[in-house]
Amino acid sequence: QMSQIMTDNTSNNKTMMQGMQYTLTMCGIPFDHEGNHLQPALEMYAAVLESDPIGQAHAIVSACRASGQCCQHLKAVIEEGNQSKMQLPVVHLLQDCPTRWSSTFQMIDCVILLNPIWFSASDFQHENADIAHLSMSCWSLDVLHDIHQVLEVAHTAQELLSGECTPTLSMVLPAYELLCEKWSQLQQTIHELSPYIGVGYTKLKFYINQGQKTQTYALAMIVNPSIKLWWIQDHWMEEDVVKARKWVIEAVCVICSVPTQYMLMSVVDR
Questions:
Q1: CA separation (Å) from 12 to 1, 15, 19, 36?
Q2: Which of 5, 85, 165, 198 has the fewest beta carbons closer than 10 A?
């Protein structure tokens, strides 16, 4: 008896499995070319990434928002499901937008949140047969969850720096350092996405290094009572710390109209 077949990820294996399904079916043996096909976890993960799970999520959102009737039906299914076993917020799926911060994260967040509808709400699939095929597989959903974790860290940092009531310039470099730390941890836990996380990590580190050469960031952090100079001393190279001290002294001298050389001598004497 044969229940499952494990193969590598070469493209001709799919054709082979389809041929086996046809042959076994003709012999009266139930066999599914996808359901009975096992692939190694890492190769399966790579295959799902190649299928573009974010694009799948975008297709679901676009289809559900294609008409007012579809939007209304989605809302009705959520409300009806909440009266029985499902407990989901009555929200609309959000579309991503290249010009909006975190829009891709928010789109994925909504798709994951409302995903139980695709599996349990047969009425929704029946009434919207033209989009029922867009439901994501368990593998695709798992990968989407991992991508969601990576983007959530960046989204949290972006939200922190988007405050409108208080200046947030002093929090930029500390927030980015924390973001790098979290991404580094995710590289250890989500090995499959490590190369992609590394691209963002490298770019962010470059920005941080460039920021350390800018007086504006240093002065903003030092005048912030919750940060001052201690954070710079803990996270910057000694030569950069010396530069930061000099920038502060120069800024104070300009404000107080005191020659910089006398202020430097005073600091050295202390």
A1: 24, 5, 11, 16
A2: 165
Q: Give the pLDDT confidence of 94-119 residue by residue, as tens digits.
A: 888 877 778 999 999 988 888 777 65
Q: For Cα atoms 35, 37, 42, give the angle at the middle one, nearest 5 degrees.
A: 115
**Span 242-252, pLDDT tens digits:** 998 888 888 88
pLDDT in tens, 74-98: 777 777 767 776 677 777 778 888 7
Q: What letter represents residue 32's amino acid?
A: D
